[in-house]
Amino acid sequence: MTGCVKVGFELEMSDIKTADAATIVYGDLVHWKDCYGENYDKPILTYDRFHVLSDGTLCNSDGTCCMANYRDSEGCRQRADRSEGHPDHLKWKGAELISPVIDWESAADVADVFSRCEDDYFPKFKEAGAVCNADLHDGLHVHIDISALSWTEVRELLLAIEPVQWQLGRLTSEWRRHEFFRAEELASLRTAKTRDDFDARYRTIRGHRGGLFLLPRWNDRIRRVVDIGPYLDPNRPDTIEFRCFRAAMDTAYVAECIELTLDVLRGCHRTGFEEEIERRVEELLRKHRKHIFNGEFAGIAMSGGPVPVLDELWRVAPDVAPKDRECDSIEAVLEEMKREIGEFQNRRRRSTKLTESGESPLP
């Protein structure tokens, strides 16, 4: 990853009307091209500017899901018509902000994109009711340009990244349908002979009741936490997509997520790669635990991965590393962390028992 590094991001939001978000970005609805149809067909976009789209995975605090239903004037939930150009597009909530292509090596380019977010879009989104909430499935997706790589190089890149997919999965939102590569799928990818064969094997998934199925590109089961679907799609830019971050209207956090993905790509063939990414994930969890990674399932790899070892250190670890503390020894700090972990686990167990018994977990 040298020279001009092109990146982009998609930020998902809930509770804001899709049309309101589009009006904020475009100024009106004349240039708005939204998703439509039962298969969530996406319009062809140019990536020299910001865009807004609906997204069928987004949920809202009023119990509606984007593109699926909406609340009418009396508060009743109604099924939405997804057909292209239908007036129901103006009624549903949930939006995805799509950035222009960013030259990550250009400080001016980065500053221009992020300043528009911080000074214009984010304040207006929030004023219109937008929230980024992991419980509502809001995610941040980072795209990195890999157009210079051949399909065989992309395959080797994917296989090299595979060992850290579960670590990256700890950063995801609460959506239970995040997908990871399984051993048999990776073994199949290794034997591909052509790009078309590679594409077909990438989209071939074993069904829950057995049997292999070649799925269409829009199907969620082929969109893994680390996804090369865009690279293989002739109608999309040649990118690798990291679908592994929680959403937040915070450009400093977005920048850290982009840097993490670039470090994954730069270092995936180096010795100590897995330990380095594990450390980076822990740092990200700890730094943003108060306002982003604060749910019960934050930091836990889900969707059929290895059984997670209970590890809550990032939740209670001090903001200042032990070596920077003047008074306490490392042993004393670790002992205090263990005590706080035990208290955290006891509170969670007590809350679960009270909830199951019908009592309120609140004092």
Summed up, what is this model?
This protein is α+β, with helices and mostly antiparallel strands and 363 residues long.
Any overview of this molecule?
With 363 residues, the chain is an alpha+beta fold. Helix content is 36%, strand content 14%. It contains eleven helices and eleven strands. The chain has helices at 18-26, 107-127, 151-161, 165-169, 183-190, 195-202, 229-232, 251-267, 273-287, 313-316, 330-357; strands at residues 6-17, 51-53, 69-71, 77-79, 93-98, 102-103, 139-145, 204-206, 212-214, 226-227, 239-246. The strands form three sheets. Strands 1, 2, 5, 6, 7, 10 and 11 form a seven-stranded antiparallel β-sheet that branches. A two-stranded antiparallel ribbon has the order 3-4. Strands 8-9 form a two-stranded antiparallel ribbon. A hairpin with a 5-residue loop joins strand 8 (204-206) and strand 9 (212-214). Residues 322-327 have low confidence and may be disordered.
Number of helical elements: 11
- In helices, the fraction of residues equals 25-40%
* Residue runs with pLDDT of under 50 for 5 or more positions: 322-327
What distance lies between the first and last C-alpha atoms, to the nearest angstrom?
A: 53 Å
Please name the defining characteristics of this protein.
363 residues, alpha+beta, two-stranded antiparallel ribbon, 11 helices, 11 strands
